[in-house]
Amino acid sequence: MEEIVTELEMTAAGQLNPAPVVDGVTLRPAEPGPLIRDLHRRIGTPYLWPSATRSDEDWEHWLAEPQRQYRLIEYRGETAGAADFESQNDTDVEITTFGLLPEFVGKGLGGYALTLVVADAWALPGTERVWLHTSTLDHPNALPNYLRRGFRSFSRPA
Q1: Contact present, 100 and 109 (Cβ < 8 Å)
Q2: Residue 158: pLDDT over 50
Q3: What's the whole-model pTM score?
Q4: Neighbours of 40 (CB within 10 A)
């Protein structure tokens, strides 16, 4: 299957269409390190995420990025997924990772977890745009979830 990448953005915090609250879903800041690496591997392997097979050198570079912030998605005290985002050029924030562990997929957590992550991204000072990309290799509910939360597709000039 050919991979098709879709880039999505919000250009105002008011565009976020929050999902209904799911009792027990929270975000917790995390430090870069082995846990983040393991979560990327476990979440991304089924979807062929490049992070699932990064080299040690590539991970060292990824985890050393000073603008990147990490979040653990928790459900009733258990780690259910991970997200990270980074400030770019003082006004853009890219959500570089968002996903749930396989055992938490299909339990209705993704919409509210994404709401929390996007709200955290918008909370960074000076943010005027939050963006991310997804692809046809991701979970089939990924793109619909992003669209329901208020993201809109955009194309970058070549």
Answers
A1: yes
A2: no
A3: 0.93
A4: 22
> Going edge to edge, which strands form the sheet with 25-30?
25-30, 68-75, 78-88, 92-100, 129-135, 5-10, 152-154
The answer to whether 60 and 72 are in contact (CB under 8 A) is: no
- Given a contact cutoff of 8 angstroms between Cβ atoms, the answer to whether 97 and 113 are in contact is no
- Residue indicated by tokens 């603008």: 67
Longest Cα–Cα distance in the chain: 44
Polymer length in residues for the chain: 158
Residues 150 and 17: beta-carbon distance below 8 Å:
yes
Identify the CA nearest to 114 among candidates 77, 141, 87, 91. Answer: 141
Q: What share of the chain is helix, strand, coil (3-state, %, to 5)?
A: 35, 30, 35
